[in-house]
Amino acid sequence: MSSIADNIGSVTRRIQKATLQAGREPGSVHLLAVSKTRPPEDLREAFASGQRAFGENYLQEALEKIEALADLDGIQWHFIGPIQSNKTRQIASAFAWVHSVDRLKIARRLDEQRDPALAPLNICLQVNINEEASKSGCRIAELPELVAAIGELPNLTLRGLMAIPDPDQPEGDLRASFRKLANTLKQLKTDHPDAGPLDTLSMGMSGDLEMAIAEGATWVRVGTALFGKRPAKS
Ligand SMILES: *Cc1c(COP(=O)(O)O)cnc(C)c1O
User: Fold this and answer.
1) Residue of 168, 205, 213 to test ligand 1 pocket, by largest number of atoms within 8 Å of CB
2) How many CA atoms lie within 13 A of 172 on its CB side?
């Protein structure tokens, strides 16, 4: 079995190669290590190999790890899971990024609860790109209103869009989903130049990061390829 350090090396090389092949600037794609279900020691090992950004889906589990790893200077926490409105206060104080904002109520609460003494919270809007009934995320049609409203909130910085396309669709459709998210971001940037940097596309995971990078991903969220297969959820 390969070590976490080896895996970070090979995923980093995959990212570099895909970035080069896409004709994109070296360093323009960031690796988010998705560490849900993993014990703090695994994150410590990744940190020791240079990894700084970690993505967590479940708040309680995340808070325990954040506390256990408080000695790691420069570690950066990203929240990427579904958000219940009674959990926003803890999310607003413990994380640097939230990739999974999908409604205005949540954005407003995060803004109100973010300590203004901290840097603004970086936000991505999660889009239900394939309009799957079971998935979280807003519809593309809702984005203009959301972007306009969130752009006004002082303690949030609107960075861009996130999606988790249906991984079981044919490769061509998956690529089209990534492209659709990229084109949607471009349009929003044109229509709402003052809403925020809108410089971020959070898309691509262990199995499809090359395709996502070819279509413009700036953060790839990678779990399995770094930490191995997750235990089945009970
Ligand atoms: C679990 C998860 C990932 C990582 O998926 P892998 O296939 O293990 O790389 C990425 N994004 C989100 C939102 C996730 O929940």
Assistant:
1) 205
2) 0
- Average pLDDT, integer, range 64-93: 98
Ligand 1 pocket (Cβ < 6 Å) reads 34, 36, 57, 80, 164, 205-207, 221-225
Helix axes of 40-48 and 59-68: crossing angle, nearest 10 degrees: 60
**122, 97 Cβ separation under 8 angstroms:** yes
Q: Quote the pTM value.
A: 0.97
Q: CA–CA separation, 226 vs 87, rounded Å?
A: 28
CATH code of the region 4-227: 3.20.20.10
- Two structure tokens written together for 113: 């609860």
- Mean pLDDT over 83-100 rounds to 98
- Is the pLDDT at 234 greater than 70? The verdict is no
Share of the chain above pLDDT 70, in %: 99
